[in-house]
Amino acid sequence: MSTPARRRLMRDFRKLQEDPPAGVSGAPSENNIMIWNAVIFGPADTPFEDGTFKLMIEFTEEYPNKPPNVRFISKMFHPNVYADGGICLDILQNRWSPTYDVSAILTSIQSLLDEPNPNSPANSQAAQLYQENRREYEKKVAAICEQSWQNL
Amino acid sequence: MSDSQVIMKDETCSTANGKSGSMESTKQDAEVKPFTLKKWNIVAMWSWDVDCDTCAICRVQVMDACLRCQTENKQEECVVVWGECNHSFHNCCMSLWVKQNNRCPLCQQEWMVQRIGK
């Protein structure tokens, strides 16, 4: 059944294929366009470089008026990512705009990786290390980057 | 040397003959009229001389019906709304959005309707 949300997602998918943003990719799951699998590559010259992080995006029929639920499937160590992979990002909550699409969501999460917001920590250990012991923080990040290659 | 000159002369001659000959045949053709134009079709293309905006909410051009109206077969009822900020959307798309947040989704200014129409 085709609904406005599903048609919008088809347009998002077409745009993602025609104009793919650097370092991210995503596609609807095989039998449900409301659930997408995505990969974000850790940006170069950041502690996340070479990481390949899998995510799952779940949309509702209210999309694009309501944001999707996005979470990391790969283990993540980041001040704004919860232990269950949930992401604390304003544009996915109170700053959501219906003009965003999958491409915008993925590139925003990609830029969040190296620009964490320590004021709204979802992982207090990561937030603390980021502010107080950058070397230890980067060591932990390097470990999850290495882990990310193991379950591709 | 003299031989080749003779040949050249001949060639010039024959060309001149050929020319005059073809002119005569053109005259004859015009009189016989082997073809007459009975009917022709003109094909022209047109497009709006304006930038057609895409509705940033549903990603369909504002001059076409929005995704919701296309799904519900209400193409005729789908109109465009312009805000005071000069951003335009499908009225259907925008009326759903302002229920939860009365701001322009593009510039975040408070949404004030400037005009509704086609």
TrEMBL record, chain A:
Q: Which Pfam families match?
A: UQ_con
Identify the SUPFAM superfamilies for this entry: UBC-like
Q: Does the keyword DNA repair apply?
A: yes
List the InterPro entries. Ub_conjugating_enzyme, UBC, UBQ-conjugating_AS, UBQ-conjugating_enzyme/RWD
Positions of the UBC core domain: 4-150
According to its UniProt record, which residues of this chain constitute the active site? C88 (glycyl thioester intermediate)
The biological processes this protein is annotated with in GO are: DNA repair
> Sorted alphabetically, which keywords does the UniProt record give?
ATP-binding, DNA damage, DNA repair, Nucleotide-binding, Transferase, Ubl conjugation pathway
* Domain of life according to the entry: Eukaryota
Q: Which family does it belong to?
A: Belongs to the ubiquitin-conjugating enzyme family.
SMART domains membership: UBCc
Q: What is this protein called?
A: UBC core domain-containing protein
What's a single GO MF annotation on this record?
ubiquitin conjugating enzyme activity
As its record notes, the protein acts as a catalyst of: S-ubiquitinyl-[E1 ubiquitin-activating enzyme]-L-cysteine + [E2 ubiquitin-conjugating enzyme]-L-cysteine = [E1 ubiquitin-activating enzyme]-L-cysteine + S-ubiquitinyl-[E2 ubiquitin-conjugating enzyme]-L-cysteine
UniProtKB/TrEMBL annotation, chain B:
Residues annotated as transmembrane: none
A GO MF annotation of the entry reads: zinc ion binding
Q: Pathway it belongs to?
A: Protein modification; protein ubiquitination
Matching Gene3D superfamilies: Zinc/RING finger domain, C3HC4 (zinc finger) (3.30.40.10)
Give a Gene Ontology cellular component term annotated to this protein: Cul5-RING ubiquitin ligase complex
The GO biological-process annotations, alphabetized, read as: intracellular signal transduction; proteasome-mediated ubiquitin-dependent protein catabolic process
Give the Pfam families listed for this entry.
zf-rbx1
Which positions fall inside the RING-type domain?
66-108
Q: Where, subcellularly, is it found?
A: Cytoplasm; Nucleus
Q: Tell me its EC number(s), please.
A: 2.3.2.27, 2.3.2.32
Question: Main localization of the protein?
Answer: cytoplasm
Task: Give the start-end ranges of region Disordered.
Answer: 1-29
Q: What is this protein called?
A: RING-box protein 2
Supply the source organism for this entry.
Patiria miniata (Bat star)
